Structure formats: C-alpha cells, structure tokens
Amino acid sequence: MAVFKPENVEDFYEIEDVLGSGHFGQVRRVRERTSGTCWAGKFLKIRKNACSRMGLDRVSVEREVEILQAVQHPNIVALKDVFESRSEVVLIIELVSGGELFDFIAAKENLLEIEAIEFLKQILEGLKFIHSRNIAHFDLKPENIMLSDNMSPHPNIKLIDFGLAHHFSPGEEYRSTSGTPQYIAPEVINSEPLSPAADMWSIGVITYILLSGLSPFQGDTDEETLKNILALSYEFNRQYFDSTSAMAKDFVTKLLVKNPSERMTAEDCLQHPWIKPITRIQAVHRHRSSINIKNFKRFNARRKWKMSYNMVWMCNRFVNLKLLCKGSTDPDPLQRDCESDVEDLDSKPASLLRRRLSSS
Description:
Keywords: ATP-binding, Kinase, Nucleotide-binding, Serine/threonine-protein kinase, Transferase. GO terms for molecular function: ATP binding; protein serine/threonine kinase activity. It is a single chain. By secondary structure, this protein is α+β, with helices and mostly antiparallel strands. It folds into two domains: 70 residues, 2-Layer Sandwich (Phosphorylase Kinase, domain 1), CATH 3.30.200; 198 residues, Transferase(Phosphotransferase), domain 1 (Orthogonal Bundle). It is built from twelve helices and nine strands. The strands form three sheets. It has a five-stranded antiparallel beta sheet with strand order 1-2-3-5-4, covered by helices on one side. The chain has a two-stranded antiparallel sheet with strand order 6-9. A two-stranded antiparallel sheet has the order 7-8. Strand 4 and strand 5 form a beta hairpin. Helix 3 packs antiparallel against helix 5 and helix 5 packs across helix 11.
C-alpha cells in the first residue's frame, strides 16, 4: 500500500532549481533540511476529475509509488518520500546527476564491446531484480537509462521512470498499448497478454542501436515502424556492423524474437557468452570488437534534436490550448464531458500508440 504524506513538502525540503519539465509537471532539485542532502523532487499535477485532461490520474501515480517502494536495487532509482496536496503529488527520488547513458557514450571517441557490456550488465541486473518480483518496466528506452554520475570511470547505471511499469498478480492477463514505437514488442502492438519478456525485446533494440547507431525497425512514420516490428524486418548491414563480433549479433538475435516465450530472460542474457564468455577466445573477441561510434554519435544527435523538437511542439500546443480555454464561453472546458477524453476501444493499436507516445 503506497503511503502519501499529507504534510507540506517545503517543511522538510528546500525547493531549488528546475531540472526538467514534462507534460504533467516538473522535476526540481530539493535539499533535505535536516541533512543537507540533495534529492530530485518530481512534482506531478493530479487530475481533478475523470474528464479533465490536465494532470495524471491519482491511481496511476499510486501504482508507480508502490512499484518504486518494492524495487530497491543499486541499478534502480530510489524513492525516499511521497507528499500529497489537493492538486499535486511530490515524489522525492534519488538525484541522478550523470545524464543519459547514450549521451555519455556519444561523448567518447571510441568504445570497445567489452566497455559497452559493462553498462548492459548493470541494466540486466536491474531487470533481473524487478522481473524476479513479477514487475515489468514496459518503457525501456535511452531516455530512461541514466548514470548516477559522469565523473567516475565506471559510473553506475540507474533505470528510471516506472510510470508504465506493472506488477503482475498470479494468473493475471495484462494488456497495454502504451510505449514508444521503435522500442515496443510485437505483443504490445497486437494487444496480446504481456509479460516481462516485452522488456527483453526492448533490450534487443537498445543493444542493436548501441552496436551500430541504427534503430532496427525505424521507419519514416510510426505506422511503418510498427509494420517493420510485426514483420520482424531487420538485418545486420555489413556497412554498420563490420566491427561487431558474431557473439554480439547472436545476443541481439536471441532477443528480437517474435514469440515472447522464446526470448532470452534477463538471467539468460547474463549467462550469454557475449556477456559472460566461456572460453578465452570469446573473451578476446570482445576486446577486439568495437561499436560503430561514428554512426552512434549521429543517431544520438538526431534523437536529441527530435526530443527538443517534440518539447517545443508540446509547449506551443499547451499554450494554444490555454488561450482557447480562456476564450471559451463554457464555464470549465477542461471538466466537461467530451469525446476526446474517452478512449476509443475500437481504435487500431497504431492510433492508440500515437496518442500515448512517451506518456512519461
């Protein structure tokens, strides 16, 4: 049961600078008054009623809090406190100051596979832990893989943003069409029962990108990307994988499998010869092979540009929505019954996914 404190967060923490903003709130640096320790405060607007578009549903926030309280692990961002007011919930979480893993790698001049494996091992350890507790993340992507700091030669990986995560009950069939198109598994698109295996598909996509600087299923549109995923349409183009080891490609191949039950689990991945070599020759191949850092830098630059573009577009749309609301004759346009607030259960998965991209 998630515990929400009714006290004022400012009685316990000094609110400092803004670290980031999103659709439903912002993240600010906060300093604990008693110890002086810095944390991150995730300030979330809560929906006033079921029809309002402004804010998050309290039940979904409660679910995220319960999951974070159940997954204390070195490779998962820690939750310390939760405060609640009438219109806002504040999550006090571990301050992860090292930035995104992909940005850290893109700043390097070269990267051997053995170095990339050290990061993947930490990601897999975190997933192995949450999967052992019947929890799946369901939103694994570069933006949600962070570093505790970027000054250490061996920084610690932190998985963040459990807003789409789900805790499975025994015998439960869970379906969801939320996620970011290029990282989601086929069963998500088909609205089939989900399992932690969907996370392992995402790991396959992330590893493919890490090795080559290409996204395996990325199309010109979301619809094309989803079709490529369902068709399992990808290849190891020699131009981009010329310095990639055969073991690395085998690792990816055993994750990008359409049948969830046939994919490697996090435990299987940690025992794969690419991650844990059995012979001396396998270990040598990891040291001699490298990722395509030149193309990876280009991929990361495009990714960051797209994130910035989407943020500007969202802010402009939000401002326009506010202006429309001010000019409306309705008493409260954000609390009226309206079709756009009701989910269309007959919509195609692609349409639902477009509406829910990057819900965090």
